[in-house]
């Protein structure tokens, strides 16, 4: 069984017991949640702390390309950038991972093999998730066979919104098993879940089913990661560890583009889940353009000059 399944065997015994548990979670005070997220977002940090925060944020990025026009060459270039984000400063941290479609895993792995940069692959008919379970599992196994260290799956939002929680649970369990040794990130597509209560329920459902990470979004819809929905998920992993002893990571994705944004999210992590999550094993940014802004701000701190976008590679 996945790491947390045994502790919740009674909860997952039937659709009715699972529904009773998820709907028994405390309701979310939306006004209070958004006010706290906004308040934490106004925290200022000193220059020395900013330098640390920038390097930490770079080390937490899942550098991502998920386009229909992706080519092996583009993926190899992105993997090279993950290994060496700033060729003018070898002290720049590497990113945590490169995130690609399953058919591009081998291209990324060829560049990253032997390094500590992971290859993450979306799977399970990303981004819509509208496919039969055997297709989703084949998608997952293909990615793992090609060398993926991490799998980013999407839940069946239709089943979740219809209240078919046991179907979602069993699908996550099946993908977890198909992932083998690869760590599993479970994407909720928070922009489609409509309410904060649903995001809280999805967070607990994903963790009970064995998610190693819970992730906000695919980056393919109008509303992606926000301080408020990420704060809610950070509260969930904190409370889950307090109850079970099991630590689960969090990955906000989509719409985080600036250093200022990244620092806000790091403050959320520190003030909500705590220092144990301030590490790329437990917190990631799903991003494509964020790295360039972090690099420009890093150069400015180092040289006193804002070098501009011409001095960083374009994805």
UniProtKB/TrEMBL annotation:
Catalytic reactions on record: 2-deoxy-D-ribose 5-phosphate = D-glyceraldehyde 3-phosphate + acetaldehyde
CDD domains membership: DeoC
Record bears the keyword Amino-acid biosynthesis: no
Pathway entry: Carbohydrate degradation; 2-deoxy-D-ribose 1-phosphate degradation; D-glyceraldehyde 3-phosphate and acetaldehyde from 2-deoxy-alpha-D-ribose 1-phosphate: step 2/2
Molecular function (Gene Ontology), one example: deoxyribose-phosphate aldolase activity
GO CC terms in record: cytoplasm
Protein name: Deoxyribose-phosphate aldolase
Species assigned in the record: Streptomyces solincola
Lineage: Bacteria, Bacillati, Actinomycetota, Actinomycetes, Kitasatosporales
Gene from which the chain derives: deoC
């Amino acid at each position: 069984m996945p790491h947390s399944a045994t502790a919740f065997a009674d909860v997952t015994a039937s659709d009715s017991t699972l529904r009773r548990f998820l709907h028994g979670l405390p309701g979310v005070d939306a006004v209070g949640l958004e006010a706290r997220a906004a308040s934490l977002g106004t925290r200022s940090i000193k220059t020395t702390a900013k330098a640390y925060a920038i390097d930490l944020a770079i080390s937490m990025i899942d550098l991502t390309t998920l386009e229909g026009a992706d080519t092996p060459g583009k993926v190899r270039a992105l993997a090279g950038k993950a290994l060496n984000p700033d060729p003018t400063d070898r002290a720049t941290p590497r990113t945590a991972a490169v995130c690609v479609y399953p058919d591009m895993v081998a291209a990324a792995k060829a560049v990253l093999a032997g390094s500590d940069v992971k290859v993450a692959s979306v799977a399970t008919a990303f981004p819509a998730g509208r496919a039969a379970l055997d297709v989703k599992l084949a998608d997952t196994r293909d990615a793992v066979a090609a060398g993926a260290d991490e799998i980013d799956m999407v839940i069946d939002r239709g089943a979740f919104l219809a209240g078919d929680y046991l179907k979602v649970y069993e699908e996550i369990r099946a993908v977890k098993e198909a992932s083998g040794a690869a760590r599993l990130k479970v994407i909720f597509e928070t922009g489609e879940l409509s309410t904060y209560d649903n995001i809280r329920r999805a967070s607990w459902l994903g963790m009970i089913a064995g998610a190693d990470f819970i992730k906000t979004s695919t980056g393919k819809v109008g509303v992606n990661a926000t301080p408020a929905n990420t704060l809610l998920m950070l509260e969930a992993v904190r409370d889950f560890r307090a109850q079970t002893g099991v630590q689960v990571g969090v990955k906000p994705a989509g719409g985080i583009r600036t250093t200022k944004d990244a620092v806000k999210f790091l403050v959320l992590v520190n003030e909500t889940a705590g220092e144990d999550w301030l590490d790329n094993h437990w917190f990631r940014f799903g991003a494509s353009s964020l790295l360039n802004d972090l690099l420009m701000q890093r150069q400015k701190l180092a040289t006193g000059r804002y070098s501009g976008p011409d001095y960083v590679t374009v994805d």
